[in-house]
Amino acid sequence: MKLEGKVALITGAGSGLGRQSSQLFAGEGAKIAVVDIDADRAEQTAKLVEQQGGDAIAITADVADKSAITAAVDQTVEHYGKLDIAWANAGVVSRGGVPSVAGGEQVDFEDLTEEDWNNVLGVNLSGVIFTAQAAVPALKRNGGGTIIATSSAASFVAYHQIALYSATKAGVNGLVRGLSLDLGPYGIRVNGIAPVHGMSPNFLMPAGSPVVGQSYEEVAGPWDPYVSPIPLKRNRPPSLVDNAKIALFLASDDSAYMSGQVIGSADGGTLSRVGMWFPEDLDQKNPNA
Ligand SMILES: NC(=O)c1ccc[n+]([C@@H]2O[C@H](COP(=O)([O-])OP(=O)(O)OC[C@H]3O[C@@H](n4cnc5c(N)ncnc54)[C@H](O)[C@@H]3O)[C@@H](O)[C@H]2O)c1
User: Fold this and answer.
1) Atom 4 in ligand 1: which residue has the minimum CA distance?
2) What global pTM score does this model have?
3) Helix, strand, or coil here: 35?
4) Which of 165, 216, 226, 257 is catalytic?
5) Of 85, 142, 185, 215, whose CA is between 20 and 30 Å from 78?
6) Helix (H) or strand (E) holding 164
7) In the CATH scheme, what is the code of domain 7-274?
8) What one-character-per-residue DSSP string does 201-246 give?
């Protein structure tokens, strides 16, 4: 078991990558603080972890609210006695970034408001900073630990309609590099994961939608291995688990001497996604709807 005896706090763990990773990390022996702004989703993830024989608590917090995420870290330490892994994973797409086939509105860059920017900045970058700030005292008391931040392929390459999102994720990469220098002497490693394929369609669905629990590509099927930038010819589409396993590598001692890096997962990250295929009938394809 790669995380035996470890305590991991994961934000945005009510859905997608965070939920999948909560289950994966718990299976590797970690106790999980499942943090999400959506209380029901957090409860569901904690229940899934418990059903597989793991240990989890659900905490409702908005990562854009520094006092809320600080309280979440405090609650985790109070409950489990320590913190080893803090993963700032919660993220939202900026307004105008949802494809029209998925019900999104197209918004010209000059029409994006200050509120739009503050929303995406608050969750995607301030939320990562606040989560790390809240975690560092506990990690120092612990004698070290690991911080992970979820970035995106959009921090490396361009995608239409999500320039604000890309800016926040590029900021995450800079934060990872800078913090790794400052926190290394305390035994705290800081790394990022920048997913490309195998990610959650919930990300582009309205808040509160039923959690799909599969990747875009799994939902879309049948899988065409040549649709991806790096055509890994496997007989299955990329999945949330493929990304979660990269996060597990970053969380575990397998990456004990690695810090300040942002890994493109799954199947690349430095190449542009050919297209994020989003089926018009996603609701009908959603096995959990
Ligand atoms: N899905 C993608 O296409 C994709 C691609 C690359 C990177 N990412 C990044 O991966 C991370 C995880 O996203 P996902 O794909 O699992 O999406 P998701 O929508 O399935 O899950 C994100 C979770 O974060 C929660 N959340 C949103 N705002 C929050 C806040 N302010 N405080 C606390 N929780 C909040 C949501 O309720 C949701 O449960 C995000 O940082 C996202 O930017 C996603």
Assistant:
1) 199
2) 0.95
3) strand
4) 165
5) 185
6) helix 163-183
7) 3.40.50.720
8) GGGGSPTTPPP--S-HHHHH-S--GGGSSS----SS---HHHHHHH
